[in-house]
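Issue: ligand-bound run for adenosine-5'-triphosphate - logging full I/O for the record.

Environment: standard queue, default settings, no custom constraints.

Inputs:
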Amino acid sequence: MISARGLRKAFGDFEAVKGIDVEVRRGEAFGFLGPNGAGKSSTMRMIASVSPVSSGELRILGMDPATDGPAIRGRLGVCPQEDTLDNELNVFDNLYIYGRYFGIDRATCRERAQELLEFAQITDKAKAKVEDLSGGMKRRLTIARSLINNPDLLLLDEPTTGLDPQARHVLWDQLFRLKQAGVTLVITTHYMDEAEQLCDRLVVMDKGLIAAEGSPRQLIDAHSTREVAELRFGVGEHEALAEKIEDLGERIEVLPDRLLVYSDHGEDVVTAVLDRGLHPIATLVRRSTLEDVFLRLTGRSLAD
Ligand SMILES: Nc1ncnc2c1ncn2[C@@H]1O[C@H](COP(=O)(O)OP(=O)(O)OP(=O)(O)O)[C@@H](O)[C@H]1O
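Outputs:
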């Protein structure tokens, strides 16, 4: 569905994407993870064939965006990061008129729009103004709109950013249903838990390069320990305490509000900490997640 070799994007002297290789296969959910400014959106815009490739090779659905832009765009669905709904149109017409841009006939467009309202669970809002929708509903409508042309490939740039947890959950359900229906999804997100559940494969991008790639499981196995002991001490104590227990894990991360001790046996770490006469305010032993991989590879936590 997507094949990139040595893909680069430069803005003047600045290289936002510095030569990446990516392959996305039919039917998979593929994720781009990375901190702000990693080059995810720049990559997505090249894939969407709305931003020219600076150098390298890019094929989308077997076609070259430089020469086949309209044909590619006709077969893509795009859910951009910023809200691009048409405020002058009601909810139904946002779908219907968008569909007409693809040259879909009126009757089919009406039928599709109706189906997509149901899919997005906003049928009762068909006649409402866009500005009267909640943030979550707007996002669902944007995703519904991106599906009007039955795309082969759906590109989603941070679809859940800025939503409250419940709205995120509803939207994430929508994405799972698309995945089950066999739609190829390419997604950028800041939410590691969601990426872990949804993505079959993903790449971690940092500073314009790919730092790692694989399935969530492969990435966790390769870049983290089985478990993590989280230890919370008093404010300002973490740096000094990290030195006292650094031998207890394979690695320690000092965050502003806690220490993360990486070890395959988290409970043993907690026991050893208590044996040394240290008294954490709170402890938690959990399995490693993509968040830990991210921290390892980029040196940044998502809170940063
Ligand atoms: N049109 C542009 N002109 C100049 N610089 C740009 C342009 N678009 C992006 N950049 C720069 O390229 C770098 C990568 O930006 P990009 O938006 O691709 O990152 P991102 O990983 O999507 O980040 P975010 O998570 O914040 O969306 C940033 O340093 C950004 O300032």
